[in-house]
Amino acid sequence: MIKNKKQHGGLRIGAGRKLHSGLYGESTKVIRVPTSKVSDIQKYIIQFQVNNVIDVSKSNFLLTHQPLDLFEYKVPAGFPSPAEDYKEKKLDLNEYLIKQKEATFFVRIKGDSMIDAGIHDNDIVIVDKSQTASTGDIILASIDGDFTVKLLSRNKSKYQLLPANEKYKPIEINESMQFEVWGVVTGAVRKFK
Amino acid sequence: MIKNKKQHGGLRIGAGRKLHSGLYGESTKVIRVPTSKVSDIQKYIIQFQVNNVIDVSKSNFLLTHQPLDLFEYKVPAGFPSPAEDYKEKKLDLNEYLIKQKEATFFVRIKGDSMIDAGIHDNDIVIVDKSQTASTGDIILASIDGDFTVKLLSRNKSKYQLLPANEKYKPIEINESMQFEVWGVVTGAVRKFK
DNA sequence: TTACTTGATTAATGTTACAATATTCAAAAT
DNA sequence: ATTTTGAATATTGTAACATTAATCAAGTAA
């Protein structure tokens, strides 16, 4: 049929991607840089991604010291806890969670792919980029430019990234992928209120 | 004159600019970066120009980011909210998680009764005893001398403590129990490594 | 009704292409 | 011997392109 058969047609005013809806909430430019510095620069600019999976802050500032009381005890013991069941000591969150402050940064998690590891949407994880990742570690990695927090595992000679959520499939790393480990997740914090 | 008039001609084998004779002594690549970071990045890579006298130690490039620069970028104001939202990149764990330091203490959790709230065995929760507990809050309470961390709920006029794990039953509070609220759980931290 | 599908529209993003500049070589001219 | 000229080839900033992504509304299905 030689026919005008528009089916879903019509003008869409206002359609199209919105301005500054990209990774950085602003426009971008192309620049030329020395090859050996490309990955440094990419590590730097991911901090400023706003609409992506994660947003990253640095911790290389003056860390406050705020030792407060820590009570250790067994909660659902089922039986009444005698007084000696908990002991008291001082704890400072920065000291407790950060070993290498120069190499540490924070990543806010979006999504539920690590929920079985107790990492929930909107949690902040602590990443130490000075540690070398071993299997069994939860790591921040990039795969073909996408950042992800996953459990590093190995199947024979192949590395795998395992999500902690049945809804997501393991990712097997192969040579055709651009794969980079950015650091080891050493902790997580969550705010309820 | 229709003439073959080669004057200075001839093959020049080996002629041409030499490889890696550029600014950086190495090849370059084109990358795309957010506009507001271009000058940062250029300040960074200028250090690696081979003819440049300035020899800055290999210090992390992020550390060269001065508060002054940051302020500069905010002024042009061409961009609406995103820049504004992210101007505060500092994060201090103590500040982030603790509002009332005089009234705050930590409790290490043993057991899995709050696992569905993302509180796992061996986690440390942050408790603020200055906050009054409302239904929906996760609280630290003692029942007949036993400490527990649970979700505070209400069924008609009766308060209940709900565990976040199907394996455990809700606890209904009644007058015969010695019941005391010690504080509201305002956060949780976990160490993986 | 409501939700999904489709195509139109426009921005983002990574890469390639290109033009202008810079460097090097050697033949030709002086 | 020195300078001039043009060929050869790399650098470097920017433009252009193709692909992807996001958004909107009409059409379709439930």
Report what the structure shows.
- With 193 residues, chain A is mostly beta strands.
- Chain A folds into two domains: 53-63 and 101-193, Ribbon (Umud Fragment, subunit A); 66-97, no CATH class.
- Helix content of chain A is 7%, strand content 35%.
- In chain A, the strands form two sheets. Chain A has an eight-stranded antiparallel beta sheet with strand order 2-5-6-11-7-8-9-10, with no helix packed on it. In chain A, strands 3-4 form a two-stranded antiparallel ribbon.
- Chain A is globular and about 60 Å long.
- Residues 1-6, 51-65 and 72-87 of chain A have low confidence and may be disordered.
- Chains A and B meet through strand 1, helix 1, strand 2, strand 3 and helix 2 of A and strand 1, helix 1, helix 3, helix 4 and strand 2 of B.
- Strand 3 (68-72) of chain A pairs parallel with strand 2 of chain B, so a sheet runs across the interface.
- Chain A binds a DNA duplex (30 and 30 nucleotides) through residues 6-23, 27-32, 145.
Short description:
The structure is a homodimer of 193-residue chains. Chain A is mainly beta.
Pick out its properties:
2 helices, 2 domains, 193 residues, Umud Fragment, subunit A, DNA-binding, mainly beta, two-stranded antiparallel sheet, homodimer, disordered N terminus, 8-stranded antiparallel beta sheet, 35% strand
Indicate the multimeric state: homodimer
Q: What is the β-strand count of chain A? A: 11
Average per-residue pLDDT of chain A, rounded, comes to 66
Q: What is the CATH class name of the largest domain in chain A?
A: Mainly Beta
The total of helices of chain A stands at 2
Class based on secondary structure composition and strand pairing of chain A: mainly beta
Model regions low in confidence, pLDDT < 50 over at least 5 residues of chain A: 1-6, 51-65, 72-87
Q: Please provide the ordered H/E string of secondary-structure elements of chain A.
A: EHEEEHEEEEEEE
Structural Rg of chain A = 23 Å
Q: Biggest protein-protein interface?
A: A-B, 78 and 81 residues
Distance between the termini of chain A: 64 Å
The residue fraction in helices of chain A comes out at: under 10%
| CATH fold name of the largest domain in chain A | Umud Fragment, subunit A
The domain tally of chain A reads 2
The proportion of residues in beta strands of chain A is 25-35%
Question: What is the CATH-assigned architecture of the largest domain in chain A?
Answer: Ribbon
Largest sheet of chain A: 8 strands, antiparallel
**Overall geometric form of chain A:** globular
Name of the CATH superfamily of the largest domain in chain A: Umud Fragment, subunit A
Numbering strands along the chain, what is their spatial order in the largest sheet of chain A? 2-5-6-11-7-8-9-10
